[in-house]
Amino acid sequence: GETLPAKGRPEYAAFWIGRARSLTYVPDMGYIQEEGQTDEDAASLGFDKFRSDMKTWWHNLNPEWRKKDDSHFELAREAGDFSQLYYPGINGLVTLVKSLKWWWEAIETVQELPGDRQ
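^ that's the sequence the OP posted. Answer follows.
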């Protein structure tokens, strides 16, 4: 089957696909660490990038009629043709669902950090 478009796809999703979609892979969102940063700051930055990448990817995947603007946040909440999102197979919507699972798990990890992380 066809694969989901990669434009804006989070790096973790590409890494997961490249590793034969391991069922045990969990991304380490604390990998983005600059000199002098605490582990907590690095974890926050890694999560923020993943969150931003997920929103961009989801915006790119959606049909044009659903996009209100280029903010990657506003999508029309109305009925329409979603057949554009039909991507069966191992590199299809499974990748999106797996990425959403990582996001959900990461929220639990960083929810105690300062600021809005969801």
